[in-house]
Amino acid sequence: MTIVATTPYDDQKPGTSGLRKKVPHFQQPNYVHNFIQSIFDSLEGFEGKTLVIGGDGRFYNREVVQIALKMAAANGFGRVLVGQGGLLSTPAASNVIRKYGAFGGIILSASHNPGGPTEDFGIKYNIGNGGPAPERITEAIYARTKEIEDYKILEAPDVDIDTIGTTDLGGMTVEVIDPVADYAELMETLFDFPAIRAMFAGGFRMAFDAMSAATGPYATEILEHRLGAAAGTVRNGIPLPDFGGHHPDPNLVYAKALYDEMMGPDAPDFGAASDGDGDRNLIIGRDIFITPSDSLAMLAANAHLAPGYAAGLAGIARSMPTSAAADRVAEKLGVGMYETPTGWKFFGNLLDAGLATICGEESAGTGSNHVREKDGLWAVLLWLNILAVRKEPAKAIAEAHWREYGRNYYARHDYEGIDTDAANGLVEALRAKLPDLPGTKVGPLTVAAADDFAYLDPVDGSTSSHQGIRILFEGGSRVVFRLSGTGTSGATLRVYIEAYEPPDGNLGLEVPDALADLIAAAETLAQIKERTGRTEPDVIT
Ligand code: G6P
Ligand code: ZN
């Protein structure tokens, strides 16, 4: 074991989901080493225990897996489970941590951000429950990165991570595992595979876009091999270090080809996609895009149709910017509803405490208590299970849902790569206005309430403030303003817009029409054009 002297970097603060930077940034001398040592220095009691290592296969994944293995050995871990080829989707990593009682895991991913020599990379730490480290740990890691003076590493040749089996690395056991097997087995316990298999056998057609990212091998094994979907159901199924040059974010912009196909004349019955590390999902029925917020509500309302959830839900949780569609389901089911800040880590305590069973975010994340990460393929399989049992198209299920609960029209407008000072100025100006807003009119709308969202965790009593500016209008509509915590250049302003129509209201509007007054109100309130120089959002999801 070697102790190597190093000097701190001042920019290793983990964001919404770990440390994310461009690859060349990570390639600076000791940049990766400093961060990994800071993770280990912030943990206690891992001597001799198991660590899980895996990533989404993007550029630099293999190199960092080797560094992490050698540092884990030098720091005293007893065993590392690493996905073959360094690959583990984020939900699969969460499952492996839980299933094998690991102390924690290092997940290498920048999620839905592009990959390649000049694109994004990321490192995050997950704790023993399989979920992202809570803020108390990420803050300790950040504090450590600012003082670090040395790191420990084993001088050894690279480990063969491509052959399944066990090797020794300086007294630590390295087990290279099949990245798919444990995950596929878990899915079989949750869903009615025979019913879904029968649906495919009956001619049901599906298109799944793995976006040349981590979900490819999982989707191919589960959908095509175990469930009998036709060969070719999974497109872009081979993970590539640069995701084929694409942006592996399953939204209507980056998965436009799938969307167009689903709206076209020969559309399959069901379309879906997942992101770089396999935790996000996009759901498109024939002739209908299901927003992530609606998907959460519809999955929650129908979850009992899947064997894993037949006993019903303990509760539902959603991030604050996610629409309130799921709240109405929770109300009807008579179960708890929890509204958390953005970031899957906030669901961990609710899931561990048994308060929530299903969680979701507007950012295309949905999941349950089966792991402690959101899970793209899980959401797809739950949809398939529901379709197989109800024997109705997704569009009919969505329309029936709206007739029962009403419809939360929803869109998110993203202004990407804007000047950081301008973005902060915009949020500060809004915050300053908040006390005076209630009762004021903005166009035809009247502000009912306005605040800067703060969260009190009901399980551990911790608080998180400044989690987004909420402006609620009379009638249940709202706009929310937030700065992204996952961007890697400049700032991203997210504007979340939601209008509620009750069951007897107008349920068949085009989304932009339903939201027009709110979009205008957002501009008036935040002066987006004036402060950022932008007249249009870069991405609308
Ligand atoms: C990651 C997190 C999610 C979060 C999303 C958006 O995917 O895991 O929990 O919702 O980022 O975060 P942002 O801060 O960019 O809006
Ligand atoms: Zn992701």
UniProtKB/TrEMBL annotation:
GO molecular function term, any single one: magnesium ion binding
Reaction catalysed by this enzyme: alpha-D-glucose 1-phosphate = alpha-D-glucose 6-phosphate
UniProt keyword annotation of Isomerase present: yes
GO CC list: cytosol
InterPro entries (alphabetical): A-D-PHexomutase_a/b/a-I, A-D-PHexomutase_a/b/a-I/II/III, A-D-PHexomutase_a/b/a-II, A-D-PHexomutase_a/b/a-III, A-D-PHexomutase_C_sf, A-D-PHexomutase_CS, Alpha-D-phosphohexomutase_SF, PGM
Any single Pfam family the record assigns to this protein: PGM_PMM_II
Presence of the UniProt keyword 4Fe-4S in the record: no
Similarity section: Belongs to the phosphohexose mutase family.
The name this protein goes by in its record: phosphoglucomutase (alpha-D-glucose-1,6-bisphosphate-dependent)
